[in-house]
Every structure is written in C-alpha cells, then in structure tokens.
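TICKET #2291
ISSUE: user wants both folds in one file
ATTACHMENT 1:
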Amino acid sequence: MKRVLSGLVLIPVVLGIVQYGSLELFAVLVTAAVLAGWVEYVRLIRTIGITFNPIVGGGMCLLLVFCFYRNDYYLVWLAVCLISLFISWYASRSALEDALHQVAYSLLGVVYVSGLMSYFILLRGMEHGNHILFFLFMVIWTGDIAAYYVGKNIGKTPLAPEISPGKTVAGSVAGLAASVAGGLAAKYLFFGTLPLSHCLIAALICGTMGQIGDLTESLFKRRAGVKDSGSLIPGHGGVLDRLDSLMFAGPAFYIYHELFL
C-alpha cells in the first residue's frame, strides 16, 4: 500500500512538471533528485568503509547540474572538481593510503549521480523534450514491470547471481521485449515524429542500458551489504533505487539522438 500511495503522489507531480513546467522548474526537480541521490551515495560508500567530504562533493554535483543546464563549461567543471577534491583530501589530513580512494570514490559519485541524472535536463530542452522523457518512462517502466513479474514467476537461471541474485535471464529477456513494446506504444500514443525503425532501436538500446543501470546500483548495494540505497520514498526505497535504470537510459537516448536523429 505504501508503494501504491507513493506512486499515486509522486508520478503525477513528475509527469506534470515534465509536460507543463518550464525548463527551469524541471532543472530544480533534477537538482533535488541529484542532492537526494548524492546523500544516498555517500551513505553507501561510508558503509563500505570509505569516507570523504560530502559537502565538497555535493557542491561539485550542483556545479555539474548548472553546466548541463547551460550545456557548457564542462572542461571548467572537470578542472575545478579534480582540484577541489584533492584540496579537500589535503585539508582532511587523512592517511596517505586513503587519498586515491577518497578522491576516486568522490569523483565516481559526482559523475554517477549528477552526471547521469543531469542528462535529463538536456533531453527536456530538446524539441519534443517532454515526449522524449515520456518515451523513456514507458520504455523503462514497462521493462521493469515485465522483468519483475516474469523473473519472479518463471525465472530460473540467475542473470548475475553475485550482484543481484533475484534477477533472472527470463526476466531480463521479458524486460527487453516489454521495453520495445513500451517504446512502440509511446510512438503511436504521443511520439509520432519518431521514425518506427529508430523507435525500435532506441527502445532496445535504452531497455538494455536500463538493466545495466539497475545492475550497477545493485553492485553498490551488494558491496555495502544493504537492501535499498535509502528510505526517502515509502515502499520504494531511495531515489537511486527508483532512478537507477533511467540514469543509464537517459544518456543512452541522448547519444543515439545526437548520432542518428
């Protein structure tokens, strides 16, 4: 019931902002998700036993969101981020053997959380940006639902037992098929400008990348020994738990769009 009620509250808000909100309002939504995801990431990495300055990393997350909003200054951000992370380590006076771990995990977290999520700002700013996001939602959500129910009921062969024992090959195949079906439905419901061939290819690519994103977040959780990345969303876990697939599918669609569309 918590899961259903959370969805009934959050999904209309997100869809409403995507459809009717300005790009600035959508960027605020992405920024909130990035900050929540960063807090979850910091907790996961601390559970592993690695500590770093979360304030500096959080500032780099916000700066990267701004770069994506302006679609510029990426090289400036890279230099500022690396210098800031090393200065942060020097100021912490941590042991020398911890230096590279702290800097590397900080940089990984900023790119993973803020870098991947911020691609949705670029997508929303494109022509038909709202339709692109709805297309991705349908591709990922239908794939997730199919993978869960097929894997739970008839799946036998584990897909990646060391990372996520519950995921099966049957669930993965069903998820990909459902992702393509979801993309096809999206084309005929509201995204008629997307050519059929590109629709099918993009849906398959995004569905595949969504599953890789799911496994990637499972890798973090498995290493940390936790079930969920957080508890912000009742019945759903944390922000990273809900957005892990979209975080990989969004950049995948952007790259496909820039290369072929």
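ATTACHMENT 2:
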Amino acid sequence: MKSDDFGKVAVLMGGQSAEREVSLKSGQAVLNALLNKGVDAHGIDADENIIKKLLAGNYDRVFIVLHGRGGEDGVMQGVLENLGLPYTGSNVLGSALSMDKLRTKQVWSSQGVPTPAFRMMDEETDFDEVCDELGLPLIVKPVHEGSSFGMSKVDHADALPDAYKAASGFDDLVIAEQWIEGEEYTAAILGYDVLPLIRLETAREFYDYEAKYVADDTLYHCPSGLDKVTENEFKQIALTAFESAGATGWGRVDFMCDSENNPWFIEVNTVPGMTDHSLVPKAAAEAGIGFEDLVWQILALTLEVNGNAHA
C-alpha cells in the first residue's frame, strides 16, 4: 500500500463540543503523522462551514478526530455518508449508539455484557430512592458527554441533588450508576483485534478530566498485570461490547474490575484521544505499533470497506 492510495485526506478536528481543545491536539498529532508518512493530508477545523470546506477541497476520504457531540455521535458520519466520502471509525448507528451511555447499557444488558446497575434521573426524581436502589457511593453522568465532563462521585445522599445539577448542565439526560470499587482498565480496538489491555491508576476519586489531561501522577500499566487467561477473557468480552454497540474500525472500551475479579463494562469511545500520550497509542506501542503506523492502519481501514462509506 502506498500513500497515494489514500488520495487527498481531510483530517477533521476541533469542532464545537466541550472536547474541542482535546480534539485539536489529537487532530494535529494525526495530521503530523500522516504528513510524515507521505499522505496528502489537510487539517480542517470542523465549524459550521464544514460541508462547504469538504466540497471545496475535493477530498477522497476523511480521518475523523472529533471528540464528543457533532463528531462522535453520528452527526458528522451522516454528513460524510451523504457526501459519499469514506471515513474512519464507526458508522452513523455505531457512533450514535456508543455516544449514548444509557442505550449502550441497555443493549449490553440484553447481550449479557456485564454493566453496572443504573437509574435515569430528572428534576422529579426521588434522590433518596436512587441511593437506596443503587447504594452508595454512586456516580452521576450526563448521557451524551465525553472526557468525564459533568461526572461526579456521590458518597452521601445529600450530595446527589448537586451532582445531578452539575450533570444536567451538560445534558438533558442524566444517569446515576452503581459505583464499582476496583481497578480500571481500557481495551483498545484496532480492526478486529483487541490490543494489550491498559490498567489505569490515579490518585483521584476516579479517572476524571484532571486525571486524563492535567495530572502528572496518573499511571498507565501496560502490560496490565493480569494473567494471560484473564486478559484474553476480558479482551473477548470487550470486543463483544464494542461490536454489540455497533462500533467498527477502531475505538476503545472502558471497564472496571471489582475485588472478585469480575469485569463491569462502562462505555465505548468511537473516536478516542490520539496524541502520543493517549491510551490507544499506548496500547498500540505495547503491540509493537508506533504512532505513525497506528494512524496509517486506521486510515487504511477506509480502503477495505466494499460499498460502504465508513471504516
């Protein structure tokens, strides 16, 4: 495969979601990698004029590096389908479903993928009832947000109303989820393969925005420390979780492992961070795949789709 096989490539980054700044960093790293590999790649900030930019640029395919709403939720994928442009990552359905934490969990429950118990919440919710049902502590999340925006751990019942208010500032849909005490892992997916698992270790209450992007004491253990049999078992469940959410191409599945070594699957990321410090590149490096080769392989998946405009 030669760089010319890709034609002219648009690297979509930025956007207008809460994760814009992270996307710009990821997008620049992807753009640099493609340019270093000799690909005719061009960075585009996905603003309200994105359709005009794509039409004017006469592009052959698109590398999506948009995190959050408008880029990871099926909206941009739908635009690209209409324009007939092949693109990286999951299709419209897989992107929309994976971005929706509530419906992802509902699908997982129907498919036997273990996921923590949860309750939807609104302004009329009996918060004491939620605490009685799920127990304490618990975690509150906006349904359609990434990078842990709007998430908070609740240790006491009287803190739940404020946690709900914080989450509802990001989304009309909010869930409370059973807290799983234990180790946190992530499984990076590339094509049909699950890369080596990463065990995350943070001094914070959970792997929140600060732990992901600001703190310098977050540890990433890869190899994960799991025995081979257990790691392979968790990998297989992660792949099932990924595919049952309609996700394809590449992405990441996050899960917790409780004190009895039971995995509990949390969410799917269909456009994970892509700086050289992000989780997917770390897992790829453990598998012997450098950052530039990882980016190349993700883009190459767009050449393998027959009759579809996604990869």
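RESOLUTION: both attachments delivered.
EXTRA DETAIL ON ATTACHMENT 2: The longest strand covers residues 182-190.
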